[in-house]
Every structure is written in C-alpha cells, then in structure tokens.
UniProtKB/TrEMBL annotation:
InterPro entries reported for this sequence: Aldolase_TIM (IPR013785), EpmB (IPR022462), Lys_aminomutase/Glu_NH3_mut (IPR003739), rSAM (IPR007197), rSAM_sf (IPR058240)
Modified residues (N6-(pyridoxal phosphate)lysine): 336
Keywords, in A-Z order: 4Fe-4S, Iron, Iron-sulfur, Isomerase, Metal-binding, Pyridoxal phosphate, S-adenosyl-L-methionine
Organism: Cysteiniphilum litorale
Catalytic reaction(s) noted: L-lysine = D-beta-lysine
Family to which this protein belongs: Belongs to the radical SAM superfamily. KamA family.
Protein name (database record): L-lysine 2,3-aminomutase
UniProt keyword annotation of RNA-binding present: no
Cofactor(s) named in the record: [4Fe-4S] cluster; pyridoxal 5'-phosphate
CDD domains recorded: Radical_SAM
GO MF terms, alphabetically ordered: 4 iron, 4 sulfur cluster binding; isomerase activity; metal ion binding
Lineage of origin: Bacteria, Pseudomonadati, Pseudomonadota, Gammaproteobacteria, Thiotrichales
C-alpha cells in the first residue's frame, strides 16, 4: 500500500553509496534461487538460460512480488520465458532502427531539438520486453576522451536544446562520472534541459543516495526524470521516499512511462491504480507505450485495437491528468505517434 504522507515529505535519500552496490550485487540471476525466495516449485516453470540477455532482478524488487504466484505481474516482466526463443515475423533486433540515427558514437539524434546519450550499457533489472535487449552497447562504449567528440557534436548542433541520458540505465554510473557528464552538458550554452530515463528509482531505490542527490542539486539546467513503472505494486514506501528526494531536494520534474503488456497491465482498472499510486508519489503519468516489436517479446504484445479500448476505458475511470498518452514509436517518424 502507498502511504501518501511520503509524497509531501522532503524525502530522505539513502546515505551510503555502498548500500546500492551491495543491493545490486545480491540480486537474483538464477531461477532456482528466485523460486526458493518466492516459494514456487522451480520445476513448475521452464525458464531458459539466456546468455545474451540473462535474468537480473534486485532482491528489493522481488520482495514486492506475491509469494507462490508464477503469474505475479511484476514477476512476469522480468522472468525469462521459452517464448522469447520463438522466431516471429516483424519482431526484430532493432525495431526502431536506431542504427540510422547514430551520427557519432554514444549518441542518437532522431528528433530535431533533443539528442539521446547511451550513457551506460547495463541495467539494474532485465525487463524481458526491453526494446534495446538486442542493442550493440559495446559499439557505443567509449572513454572520456571520445565522449568529448560526442559533446562537440551537440555543441555544433544549435537546434538542440535538450539532452537525454539513457542506456541501459544512466544511473548505473558512479556519482563522479555522472557529475562529469553533467558538467559537459552544462557547458553547452544552447542546452536548456536535462532529461534522465531510468528504471532505477523503481527497481533499486537504494541508488538514490545523498551523494547522487547532490550531483544534480546545483545546475542551471531544468531537470526531468522519466521513470518506468508498469504496475502499482512496483511503488512501495522505499520507492516513494526515493522519488520524494529526487523531487524535493534535486528539483526534478518526475514523469512516468509505462509499456502496455499482456498479462501484466492490460486492464483499465490496473492502469488506474498505477496512475493513482504514481500521483500519490509525486509522479505524473506521461506515456503508455504500445510494445515495440523487438525480437523475443511478442508474447507481451497487444493489438492496437485492444489497446485503444483499454485506454478509452481508463479515461472513463479517472481524472484526465491521470491518463497517460497512448503512443507508439515508429522508426523514422519525427515524433511519437499518438494513438486514439
């Protein structure tokens, strides 16, 4: 249950950077260990050992799952399935054709006024529907010296006014390196806004330390953080406190984007509960994405007609400001495609 009082508190961040690294290191990477933790018979479910995209689940996130329920909506998002091995037409490694928008190493420039930096290749959790699950992160990884060439591209493109930090997950970097990236961005006069796309405040709230808060506290840039939650059960007290610290101490505008997933949140009442939990935690619902057709995730997909019906029903159940925009990203389109 969400305690609304946390949303109005200043939000005390965790104080020790070692805590989040330990929490990350002690997560689940094997089904047998997770099954024991969740009190599920490990022989009741056949999960493949995928070398290219293995299971990774922080213990704190697993603790929000319903014990004994193999169909728990949080578990379904992160538990490898044999269905991922199916080869299905139109589900491809690069569904958004991001390779076509990679003018310099580490940077994607698809939209006119904003550029996205692939800041870190790793995530704290491996979501099975991730549209970058097949992404060649190694080709984008580089040293500080080469990152300076990337920032020079931004400096020369004066139509850019916003930089997005993404990945992987940018908050997987240590605080010193994040501060260095922030300083490079601040030094480019035409950049007004910094946006961070991250799932970490939801799946690994221990990462929101006092040190991290201080990195972003003093900057001329307007700051937006887009988190990623798909179900109300993801938002517990630890998450709410971490979000409050980001909002009240570092002055982030907090938004959420979700992905519409079969068996997880393909129900208007579930989405209503999510929006209300987010709003109580100080986060505005932003986008509800139709699944990107990435290889290995077809079993999560919902046809567009059904998605429209769910979204229409959601609009009838709750206040307009709690209804995220239903959207799809289409390769080579110059903006998100709004549905309905």
């Amino acid at each position: 249950m969400i305690h609304e009082k946390h949303a109005t508190q200043q939000g005390k961040a965790h104080s020790k950077s070692a805590d989040w690294k330990n929490a990350l290191a002690t997560g689940f990477t094997h089904w047998q260990d997770l099954a024991q933790f969740l009190e599920i018979d490990p022989t009741s479910y056949n999960t493949p050992a995928l070398k290219s995209f293995p299971m990774r689940i922080p213990k704190g996130f697993a603790s929000r799952m319903q014990k004994g329920d193999i169909n728990d909506p949080l578990l379904l998002q992160v538990l490898p399935s044999v269905k991922e091995l199916d080869s299905i037409d139109d589900y491809v490694a690069d569904p958004l054709q991001e390779a076509d928008f990679n003018p310099v190493k580490g940077l994607l420039h698809k939209y006119k006024n904003r550029a996205l930096l692939i800041l870190h290749p790793a995530c704290a959790v491996h979501c099975r529907y991730c549209f970058r699950r097949e992404y060649d992160y190694q080709a984008q990884t580089q040293s500080k010296a080469l990152w300076l060439d990337t920032f020079e591209y931004i400096r020369k493109n004066t139509a850019l006014d916003e930089v997005i930090l993404s990945g992987g997950d940018p908050l997987m970097h240590n605080d010193v390196l994040l501060a260095w990236f922030l300083a490079q961005i601040e030094d480019i006069s035409h950049i007004k806004r910094l946006r961070i796309h991250t799932r970490i405040p939801v799946v690994l709230p221990e990462r929101i330390t006092d040190e991290l808060i201080n990195v972003f506290k003093e900057t001329r840039l307007q700051k937006i953080m887009v988190i990623h939650a798909n179900h109300a059960n993801e938002i517990n007290d630890d998450v709410t406190v971490a979000l409050a610290a980001l909002k009240n101490q570092s002055q982030f505008t907090l938004l959420n984007q979700s992905t519409l997933l079969k068996g997880v949140n393909d129900n208007a009442h579930i989405l209503k509960a999510l929006s209300e939990a987010l709003f109580a935690a100080g986060v505005m619902p932003y986008y509800l994405h139709v699944l990107d057709k990435v290889k290995g995730a077809a079993h999560f997909d919902i046809d567009e007609s059904t998605a429209k019906k769910i979204h229409t029903k959601l609009k009838s159940l709750t206040s307009g400001y709690l209804v995220p925009k239903l959207t799809r990203e289409v390769a080579h389109e110059m903006a998100k495609t709004w549905i309905n």
